Amino acid sequence: MSDLDLSSSAISLPDTPAAPVAGTGGSAQATARDAVRALRSSQIREVANAGFGVADVLPFWFGESDRVTPAFIREAATGALARGETFYTHNLGIAPLREALARYVSDLHGATPIESVAVTSAGVNALMLAAQLVVGAGDRVVAVTPLWPNLVEIPKILGASVETVALGYGERGWTLDLEGLLKALTPDTKLLMINSPNNPTGWVMTRDEQRAVLAHCRRHGIWIVADEVYERLYYGAAGERTAPSFLDLASRDERLICVNSFSKAWLMTGWRLGWMVAPRALMDDLGKLVEYNTSCAPSFVQQAGVVAVEQGEAFTRSLVADLRVSRDHLAAALAGLPGVDVKVPHGAMYLFFKLEGAQQSLDLCKALVREAGLGLAPGSAFGSRGEGFVRWCYACDPARLDAGVERLSRYLASR
Amino acid sequence: MSDLDLSSSAISLPDTPAAPVAGTGGSAQATARDAVRALRSSQIREVANAGFGVADVLPFWFGESDRVTPAFIREAATGALARGETFYTHNLGIAPLREALARYVSDLHGATPIESVAVTSAGVNALMLAAQLVVGAGDRVVAVTPLWPNLVEIPKILGASVETVALGYGERGWTLDLEGLLKALTPDTKLLMINSPNNPTGWVMTRDEQRAVLAHCRRHGIWIVADEVYERLYYGAAGERTAPSFLDLASRDERLICVNSFSKAWLMTGWRLGWMVAPRALMDDLGKLVEYNTSCAPSFVQQAGVVAVEQGEAFTRSLVADLRVSRDHLAAALAGLPGVDVKVPHGAMYLFFKLEGAQQSLDLCKALVREAGLGLAPGSAFGSRGEGFVRWCYACDPARLDAGVERLSRYLASR
């Protein structure tokens, strides 16, 4: 879930020792394999590097709140450390956390047994594990874009090919071309990777769209990996606690893996804790994969997760209320600027808006950080469908947003 | 590095909701892909499950000390949490940790620039990342066994094929058949994965063997991934702080990736923190892979790592002195038992000894836990070359070892 990726920049190098072994080092050829070299690197990092040396930058480019994890969650980790909980845990997570998550998911999305829940070392780690479970070399994967790059790149590490289907953009903001998606989900497709609420657009898949996609994937035996880490960052009708989820529709033992994270709903980005809900028939194999990827999440981090899930509901609700205020505040301010086309989405924590002159959004974002001290993420970082747009994370207080809008306004007026 | 993998055992299942979507769930087919189903699962877990319900088990089956992480390291994490260090970090790790590790590695193995060092979410995560960097579907990998299963299984997740070369066993304990290994390292081999000091045997590769292997791999452009997580658990001549390392011989920019961990030298198994030393030309690609695997290690865990590396040297030395005492104590006690053939190795924290009647070591270990309350790891868990042996982790105080030996002695006398 991280797109924070600042370079540690230039550091002077001591000389390495001369190699006292026969043969040529061949250092020029010591490179990664082609599939890895071809993976996209972060354009947000490129923008941040362009701002290196700019003293006063207001960064809104990362997918992260500027607020620290709540004290009661941090204290749970501290308590576990004081008690000496510093040992390996079960590959699938400590029992109290799996139990707490099973209750939490059951409450939001219907009965979910403990055996369907596994703890992972971050939401992105759950995506990697899900991909490892179901795709290998030559498999066909479909993803809906614009999209946080990780979902598109992960299957490629395993040798799969990824086809993308673009969301539409119009008066109602971002919308799914359902026909187009179903057409792309050919019978030989192995996996659909879909993220709703969506990073970067805030697009939220409707219940009816989920129903149609699920029925189609069932018919053809296509796996769905649903990245639902923003489900609680949902601005629906009063009383709606969560965005529509595939878990509301599917049985727990069919070809669906739902990925989630502690990062967004409990402000735990730096903790690297996530989970997945997956068919029980996968769990033995998942345990093996966890063993071979990270073995387990840190024990005291998992204890903090228990407290977050069991005692964090009031916090999450208040966080979402704050985010809604920030979203509306920023959208109103941006709507007043010339050359800005902004729609207000129902999910996540970003405004992904059209900006005149952003046809080369990477260049524009580099100029914005250098010339205006404003850090935004270029739309092209989320695939070619995002070109012409920029992403602004509004997970901060309105005064900070105002300062950013003021910088954008001055920049637009000056060019 | 975990082989702790106890099942959470039977838990009653609530009914899952009936699926309100058309199409068949096809749950019978919702299984992992074949390559993943074929991965080995932990035989240690099988043994532990066999002991389920046995009230009084003395477990020596895990690769983990029974001591808690030192307080000064835990307090560093607590301090970072109190300061609010709960955000994403750079993919390759926080600068203070990379700097501390570069100094540490330089001190042990010669000049190593910061840019050659990357922080990972555990040693095993470093192995997974290293494999992702260099091997894909169809690639040929060679590994030396008996061996902790992870090194053999990880490349298979990526579609590679793994050939194993067996260590010899004789009067001098476990030894490398160097000729055999070089012969197996054919020019079309992509990668050698080698673990020294070795889990489970305690075998330590000599400097001359490393020199010969490095020269051969250079000649044919073969990558080496050296798992050196036990390097500090080395019982050499007085003043020798570490086992021979490939880093002592190689330049920093050739085809060598050295993997290490905080788990063993600082008793931080449950923290999931590791690092690798790799060619600088790989680092941009490694950053992408870290982003797509876990994004980063938890920020406050990395801060604890800084304190471990910078202030933990006296602790590590005292730990290794204690382990040497435990090793000698256990070896002497075992040598007095009938049917035991035990050699004293120079590294790691295990005795991997031959036991009469252990030709089916999995069955024997199940019987040992059920009938004698003694938890050992079966040799077959480490590949067929380990059959006939059992592994005993001696990372605990001598009194506890005595209690275990007493149980083994009674069991052997009774059969």
Give an overview of the whole structure.
The structure is a homodimer of 415-residue chains. Chain A is of the alpha/beta class. Chain A has 2 domains: 30-68 and 315-414, Aspartate Aminotransferase, domain 1; 83-311, Type I PLP-dependent aspartate aminotransferase-like (Major domain) (Aspartate Aminotransferase, domain 2), CATH 3.40.640.10. Chain A is built from 13 helices and 15 strands. In chain A, helix 6 (150-157) links the parallel strand 3 (140-145) and strand 4. In chain A, helix 11 runs parallel beside helix 13 (398-414). The radius of gyration of chain A is 22 Å and the shape is globular. The two termini of chain A are 34 Å apart. Mean pLDDT of chain A is 93; it is low at 1-20 and 23-27. Chains A and B meet through helix 1, helix 3, helix 4, helix 5 and helix 6 of A and helix 1, helix 3, helix 4, helix 5 and helix 6 of B.
- Rg of chain A to the nearest angstrom? 22 Å
**What's the assembly state of these chains?**
homodimer
Overall residue-averaged pLDDT value of chain A: 93
Query: What strand line-up does the widest sheet of chain A have?
Result: 2-10-9-8-7-3-4
- Characterize the main sheet of chain A: 7 strands, mixed
| Percent in helix of chain A | 25-40%
Number of strands of chain A: 15
Question: Architecture of the largest domain in chain A in CATH?
Answer: 3-Layer(aba) Sandwich
How would you sum up the global shape of chain A?
Answer: globular
| CATH evolutionary superfamily of the largest domain in chain A | Type I PLP-dependent aspartate aminotransferase-like (Major domain)
Query: What are the low-pLDDT stretches of chain A, counting only 5+ consecutive residues below 50?
Result: 1-20, 23-27
Q: What structural class should be given to the helix and strand makeup of chain A?
A: alpha/beta
Distance between the termini of chain A: 34 Å
What is the helix tally of chain A? 13
CATH fold category name of the largest domain in chain A: Aspartate Aminotransferase, domain 2
H/E series of chain A: HHEHHEHEHEEEHEHEEEHHHEEHEEEH
- Assigned CATH class of the largest domain in chain A: Alpha Beta
